[in-house]
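[Q] Does anyone have a clean structure-token version of this?
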Amino acid sequence: MVAILGLIWGATFLLIEIALTELPPLWIASGRISFAMVLTVAVWRLRGGALFLTERTAWPSLALIGALASALPFTLLAWGQQFVTAGFAGVSMAAVALMVLPLAHFLVPGERMHWRRAIGFLIGFAGVVLLIGGQAFVSSGAAMEPLGRAACVGAAACYAVSSVTMRRLPPIDPIGLAAVPLMVGTALVVPMAWAVEGPPPMPSHGILAIVALLGLVPTAGANLLRVLVIRSAGPVFMSLVNYQVPMWSVVLGVLLLGEPFEPSLLAAMGLILAGLLVSQWGALRRLMARRPTMGHPPAH
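[A] Here you go.
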């Protein structure tokens, strides 16, 4: 599931870049959330529509997840990608794990930050600083790129907080957990798009297909996979996805969109991935360790 998510989310930024040629950012976010919500809610209802599996409920946390896992980051990414490359947007997603580490340390039992995670966090933080660049804090009347970069990093922060919040929920049906936040996200972003950008424009059939694809695959399908990984393995392990997302987004942007491949982008990606590698070394070892041969006990 982690491998599939890396490829799907790496290609997402390419699709957003194409959709921006005919649609404004808020309607792109609205379209992908709405498509995903309809599909996910239909599947959830067909399975009985269960949500909380015990008497414990957490409606405020579920509403927060709806805002931070879909409405706000989708809007920030679509708006930010007007001014940054698809490759930069993908690399900024690698910062999710760096933000998850300190949050999980304080909020999720069993996810404490030990010395190796702390070293990895510092290495990766250096990469985030390089990724944003000093120009992000310089006011310019001509270039909106610094604000676009800040929007992408802000989307990463939304994903980090929502991942930790999701892990802290009481027992809950995974498809219900995927469906209800999408309902919240749709209720938030569609009125916002109408108020800010006016009635929804009618794009060409090709762009409409791109928006539908954004909703069905990287939003509905990948959202369910994300829920399953976080609920079963935790938000820190989920950050393994971010090893792959930047590489796929940069490669696809360069190959299919003709975007420039700047050395600073490569250096930033290298630092962030090195920090993630150090901080997640134990999880990677468990992931890559071969299972014992059937009939033979594991070595101790």
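[Q] Thanks! Anything notable?
[A] Residues 205-233 form the longest helix (29 residues).
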